[in-house]
Amino acid sequence: MDLDNIVIESFGSNVKIVRINKPKKKNALDFIMYKTISRILEDATRDDAINIVVLTGTGDFFSSGNDLTARNVSSDSDFYSALNDFIKSFIVFPKILIAMVNGPAIGIAATTLALCDLVYASENSYFYTPFTKLGFMAEGCSTYTFSRIMGERKALDMLLFNYKMSAKEALQCGFVNDIFKQEDLQQNVWNKLRDVTNLRCEILIANKKLIRGHIRDKLLEINEIELTALRKIMNNSKL
Fold this sequence. Notes:
46% of the residues lie in helices and 17% in strands. The protein has helices at 31-46, 76-92, 108-111, 131-134, 142-150, 152-161, 167-172, 185-196, 201-212, 216-234; strands spanning 6-11, 15-20, 52-57, 96-101, 105-106, 118-122, 126-128, 164-166, 178-180. The protein starts with 5 loop residues before the first strand and ends in a 5-residue tail after the last helix. GO terms for molecular function: delta(3)-delta(2)-enoyl-CoA isomerase activity. It holds the Pfam family ECH_1.
């Protein structure tokens, strides 16, 4: 695991904080970081003491998405396997997954927010999915979740035409739960966590399953479809 670029912290006894910690690269995610976050979520699933996991970033960015300059993967197959496991770890995580978006979220850092249970963002955040601009396919189940959350028109604008959504717009369309001033974000999220940290974990899990369980298999299927299309386009194959 990469515990330099991914830092694990605690809030009380039952909240694990996962902090993306590569500010010199705007918290861009690479192969090892994908595997590390997947492993952390798997470990939190098995840890009876953990009720909630919070994802956030160090510095001015939540994450600029995939690190296109990274060279720490031995093969394309290994990379796509890690990416698949990373997205899948969000889909199958049974406990409460919260994103504390401290700045811009780009690419897969934006799409996986739709797989979180709650999203709190700073006012200076924005959400940007420039897949077609870069010649990539949409990922992170966004071809399903974006329309479901924000409506088809706005989803098409973001995923096809690279629309950059502001924090205010994200709040208005339901993509985030609340927005705060940058300097107040963390304290406001901690205050909200204090209200829920003592709730019974099994009750949280059971209710989340009732709310989101019926789309779990659909999301897993969408993830496979999206990544298959991504591999084809990256290999210059016909879709």
